[in-house]
């Protein structure tokens, strides 16, 4: 697998007054896709709650390359671009591609795993998180931190 892929379903509420996808909708699509991926890898909300940890973001950035309109068919591809060997810190990239396979936007998030009881970075990283994120496809420019 080269990436996790998802066909987006754009909604009227995702548009801004200029009739293209509003900036904050991109972040919503990325967040939803990350959670769906974690669920597919066995890190369900129930597992996260039972084990008292979850993902936390330090940075979220979007680069907009080409506007997306309501009728566009968009596929989002998600990969890990950076990660520490113990999976304690990571970066995930979401690429938004149109029907012509042209890049419309890129979201990059930097994150870690948080202990939800201590409200601090989980140390050590829970093994189930290490196993799950190790199954993420890696970007072409993947870098070990």
From TrEMBL:
<dbReference type="InterPro" id="IPR050563">
    <property type="entry name" value="4-hydroxybenzoyl-CoA_TE"/>
</dbReference>
<dbReference type="Pfam" id="PF13279">
    <property type="entry name" value="4HBT_2"/>
</dbReference>
<protein>
    <submittedName>
        <fullName>Thioesterase family protein</fullName>
    </submittedName>
</protein>
<dbReference type="InterPro" id="IPR029069">
    <property type="entry name" value="HotDog_dom_sf"/>
</dbReference>
């Amino acid at each position: 697998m080269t990436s996790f892929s998802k066909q987006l379903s754009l909604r009227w509420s995702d548009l801004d007054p200029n009739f293209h996808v509003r900036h904050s909708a991109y972040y919503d699509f990325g967040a939803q896709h990350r959670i769906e991926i974690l669920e597919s890898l066995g890190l369900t909300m129930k597992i996260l709650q039972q084990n008292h940890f979850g993902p936390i973001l330090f940075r979220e950035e979007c680069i907009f390359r080409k506007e997306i309109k309501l009728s566009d068919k968009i596929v989002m591809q998600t990969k890990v671009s950076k990660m520490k060997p113990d999976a304690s810190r990571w970066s995930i990239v979401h690429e938004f591609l149109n029907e012509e396979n042209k890049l419309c936007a890129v979201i990059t998030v930097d994150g870690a795993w948080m202990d939800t009881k201590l409200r601090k970075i989980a140390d050590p990283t829970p093994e189930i998180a290490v196993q799950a994120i190790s199954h993420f496809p890696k970007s072409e420019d993947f870098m070990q931190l």
